[in-house]
Amino acid sequence: MSTNTQPKYLHPSSPPHITTLVLLSGLSALSMNIFLPSLPNMAEYFDADYGTIQLSVALYLAFNAALQLIVGPLSDRFGRRPVILWGNLIFLAVTLGCLFASTVETFLFFRMAQAVIVTGMVLSRAVVRDMVSDDQAASKIAYVTMGMAIVPMISPAIGGILDSLWGWKANFWMLFIMGALTAWVCWKDLGETHRPKPNASLVRQFTDYPELLKSPRFWGYALTSAFTSGAFFAYLGGAPFVGDKLYHMAPHTLGIFFGAPAIGYLCGNFISGRFSVRVGINRMVTVGALVNMVGVGISLSLFLAGLGSEYVFFGFMTCVGVGNGMVIPNATAGALSVRPHLAGTASGLSGAIMIGGGAALSALSGALLTHETGAFPLLWIMFLTSAAGLASIIMVVRRERTVFASDESNSSEQRLQSR
Predict the structure, then answer these.
(1) Mean pLDDT on 248-276
(2) Can you tell me the distance from the alpha carbon of 387 to that of 395, in angstroms, rounded to the nearest whole number?
(3) In three state form, how does the secondary structure of the chain look?
(4) Is the full-model pTM beyond 0.85?
(5) Contact in structure between 344 and 73 (CB atoms under 8 Å)
(6) pLDDT, tens digit, 9 for 90 and up, residues 345-392
(7) CA-CA distance, 377 to 358, in Å (whole number)?
(8) What is the pLDDT of residue 408?
(9) Whole-number Cα distances in Å, 254 to 46, 48, 60, 160, 241
């Protein structure tokens, strides 16, 4: 439901302030990538190979995807506030587990469990959908994620500096401190925006999934978002190897270069927030998917021509960020508007599809990269998934035109019959 109540900051009886939603989404982004420049040092600390420690990304994304299938229905059943608060508390506990892990297996378990913070990312979008109407949702989500984009833009650089000064554990102490701050702000500011369904069983909430899965429109938006973001998730899995092993970049330098997609993401979200209502969801998604594919395509072409370098590789990743910044808010708003009464479920399901594919691509890119292959496996994966994203939204647009034409034809026939 939409609410017209004006937010009162740090007042739990009113809807949350937008800064609280930014903080929720930002913590999820921070947890995902602040430690990436430290992966080589973490592998040395745990006496593990790079492929094993890189699973800290893939396992996190896989559990992240699984949780999103649960988080949405839970919030539709019990409300957004309690699910978010419990998610934050569990995140604090498992972050301590990461810090005091003595083996790589123990660390990977607690690292996987850190994905519980996805409750903030998923439900911040559902909260937006609760608060505003359909035509404003894409714009509001874009502004929330635009603020979130600042975090991944600077967090790898911060993580690299923290690693250089105090070692990799400093990154996880940073996560613990930010998690505690976020939990406090949510407790004080996050008013409930969704009317829970106390008489509906949790099983009944999960039976709502077929209603979404039978919708071609939902699938179109979800797959477009999944394929387009797939290029970014593949980047998360492979870029640390490219920077450290192929170009021998120091952790703090890699952290700075690593933030290139986030700069583009910030720009893409600004474009979405400014023009989505005026231009329309489908056009914004189409242009974003095209920018994503073209950027990776140019980078791949330069590498094939023998002109590859760290500047070419990381520089053109900015285009990936721009494309994702235009696609994800608009495709998410489209998926959530298919069945407004299932906004939480739709947010979780579409997010699970996106993150689940990202987990697979992240693991695949990490497994395929070697000194002999160079950056080519990663670039090809990113290019093909970008192309699939563009193809998905084109199919959605064509289908909508066909349905619209059919509806017009039926209406004309009905008018003739009525005459």
Answers:
(1) 82
(2) 12
(3) CCCCCCCCCCCCCCCCCHHHHHHHHHHHHHHHHCCHHHHHHHHHHCCCCHHHHCHHHHHHHHHHHHHHHHHHHHHHHHCHHHHHHHHHHHHHHHHHHHHCCCCHHHHHHHHHHHHHHHHHHHHHHHHHHHHCCHHHHHHHHHHHHHHHHHHHHHHHHHHHHHHHHHCCHHHHHHHHHHHHHHHHHHHHHCCCCCCCCCCCCHHHHHCCHHHHHCCHHHHHHHHHHHHHHHHHHHHHHHHHHHHHHHCCCCHHHHHHHHCHHHHHHHHHHHHHHHHHHHHCHHHHHHHHHHHHHHHHHHHHHHHHCCCCCHHHHHHCHHHHHHHHHHHHHHHHHHHHHCCHHHHHHHHHHHHHHHHHHHHHHHHHHHHHCCCCCCCHHHHHHHHHHHHHHHHHHHHHHHHHHHHHHHHHHHHHHHHHHHC
(4) no
(5) yes
(6) 677 777 778 877 777 787 788 778 888 888 899 999 999 999 999 998
(7) 16
(8) 52
(9) 21, 21, 21, 7, 10
Average pLDDT estimate for 101-117: 91
> Thinking of the domain 18-404, which architecture would CATH place it in?
Up-down Bundle (1.20)
> Taking Cα atoms as reference points, which of 111, 34, 123 lies closest to residue 73?
123
Measured CA to CA in angstroms, residue 279 lies from 138, 220, 283 at distances of 11, 19, 7
**Residues 6 or more apart whose Cβ sits within 8 Å of residue 370:** none
Whether 4 has a pLDDT exceeding 60, the answer reads: no
